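lol forgot to send this yesterday, sorry. struct tokens for the thing we talked abt
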């Protein structure tokens, strides 16, 4: 069994360590405190970095095959405890249990993927340019890596950082979001059980995210920092890391556009848009944020999309059949209320919802807005809630321009049955991920990441290893 009450200490150097103070972890569906965990100070974070520095050489000296055997065992344990982990995730994060179960499997798939991928982290033998010399490249682990992860996918966002880091021989210090530290601590417990050596994977818990971030950014022995979270915090970390010239992987905000063209398969466009928009109550960085629908299909799409959103069941994630859980905290609720208020004040029409759910707390009703304009905050900010603005457009050029009118560019969704349009639009969109006739593109085997202010680097795919490896050139005179 894995339960919230099992966890209180941070996991540093293979031991569970307490701090002078603790902070509360609450269930967003009920407000109940489900655990109190160690609130580490800067000294605690530094101790974890020291533990990683000490543990890394022996781990890096193992073969990729030896490390893979441990990682496979870890992924296996995650799946063996899938149900307990899903319950834990729903308790601290709020998402429906079916989504939590899916996330455990999704998280485990990154560890499996990278365990295998690291076996193929090939160097090169380069044809010589000068007689009597030979050129080689080696690919080596970059050094101790730090991970700062968000609350929306407490296992998957950590798995896709720790998977590649450990697979190539790095040691890691991970700081989970203060809202959801329990899943990370549970991962640490299972890593220990799987045989990950002490100090190779450390989980530091703290309420002082800014303080921990500074220590991780400024420590010269931390060579890689991988962060998933807001663009605002990503920029702080980017600046703070300049002094030690870290390698950075930044997965930041999205504001994903959806383009539904007249020639789209309407059933598919509606189903995939609903899946993309309302998954995790709208709290994912690739959630559909702005739905642009071409004039010829607009009325039919709006009607069908609204009907599908109306049918979604709101409630505590642990309750059977629930599709939309609570928002993560009071701030998230206040943001959604502000965005919808601003939109309606500027002339948006409420097709559905537009208010908190009747059950109160942090539950917000699925909401569909029409007559939305570019001036409204809802068009410019990442909503992170179950609110769908639907906007009419006329031509392909206009649709692309609307989609690209954002400072960020993570994912975009396109619905069309026209092959030429698929290619034209995919090439024109300023994003890192294009999903065509699909609502859920992220998988361990494919590179995930953004352009513009959505960040730097890619996670998943063969590219995901690169964040944790350096290429060394060796020139040999014969
Ligand atoms: P969100 O708005 O989704 O909570 P954040 O970017 O604030 O996104 O949080 C993502 C992660 O970044 C969390 O682990 C959080 O604790 C951490 N964090 C927040 N502020 C800072 C900061 N100033 N420095 C380092 N990490 C931070």
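and heres what i got for the seq, position by position
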């Amino acid at each position: 069994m894995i339960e919230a009450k099992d966890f209180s200490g941070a996991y540093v150097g293979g031991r569970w360590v307490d701090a002078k103070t603790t902070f509360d972890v609450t269930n967003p569906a009920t407000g109940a405190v489900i655990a109190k965990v160690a609130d580490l100070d800067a000294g605690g974070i530094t101790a974890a970095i020291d533990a990683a520095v000490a543990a890394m050489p022996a781990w890096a000296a193992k073969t990729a095959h030896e490390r893979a055997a441990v990682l496979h065992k870890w992924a296996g344990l995650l799946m063996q405890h899938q149900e307990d982990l899903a319950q834990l995730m729903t308790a601290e994060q709020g998402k429906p249990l079916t989504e939590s179960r899916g996330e455990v499997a999704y998280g485990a798939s990154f560890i499996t993927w990278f365990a295998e991928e690291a076996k193929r982290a090939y160097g090169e033998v380069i044809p010589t340019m000068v007689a009597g010399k030979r050129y080689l490249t080696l690919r080596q682990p970059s050094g101790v890596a730090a991970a700062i992860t968000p609350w929306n996918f407490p296992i998957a966002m950590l798995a896709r950082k720790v998977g590649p880091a450990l697979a190539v021989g790095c040691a890691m210090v991970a700081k989970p979001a203060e809202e959801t530290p329990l899943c990370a601590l549970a991962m640490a417990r299972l890593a220990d059980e799987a045989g990950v050596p002490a100090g190779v994977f450390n989980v530091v818990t703290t309420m002082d995210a800014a303080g921990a971030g500074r220590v991780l950014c400024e420590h010269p022995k931390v060579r890689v920092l991988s962060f998933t979270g807001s663009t605002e915090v990503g920029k702080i970390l980017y600046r703070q890391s300049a002094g030690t010239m870290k390698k950075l992987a930044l997965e930041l905000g999205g504001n994903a556009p959806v383009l539904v063209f007249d020639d789209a398969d309407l059933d598919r466009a509606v189903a995939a848009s609903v899946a993309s928009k309302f998954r995790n109550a709208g709290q994912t960085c690739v959630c559909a944020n702005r739905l642009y629908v071409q004039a010829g299909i607009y009325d039919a799409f709006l009607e069908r999309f609204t009907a599908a959103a109306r049918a979604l069941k709101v409630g505590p994630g642990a309750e059977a059949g629930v599709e939309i859980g609570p928002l993560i905290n009071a701030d998230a609720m206040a943001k959604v209320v502000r965005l919808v208020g601003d939109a309606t004040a500027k002339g948006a029409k409420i097709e559905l919802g537009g208010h908190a759910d009747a059950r109160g707390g942090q539950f917000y009703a699925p909401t569909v807005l029409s007559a939305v304009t570019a001036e409204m905050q809802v068009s410019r900010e990442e909503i992170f809630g179950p609110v769908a603005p639907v906007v009419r457009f006329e031509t392909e050029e206009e649709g692309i321009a609307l989609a690209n009118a954002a400072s960020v560019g993570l994912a975009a969704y396109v619905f069309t049955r026209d092959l030429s349009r698929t290619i034209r639009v995919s090439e024109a969109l300023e994003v890192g991920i294009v999903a065509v006739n699909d609502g859920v593109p992220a998988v361990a085997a494919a590179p995930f990441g953004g352009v513009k202010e959505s960040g730097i680097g890619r996670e998943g795919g063969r590219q995901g290893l690169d964040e944790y490896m350096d290429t060394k050139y060796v020139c040999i005179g014969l």
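The first strand starts at residue 10 and ends at 12. anyway ping me if u want another try
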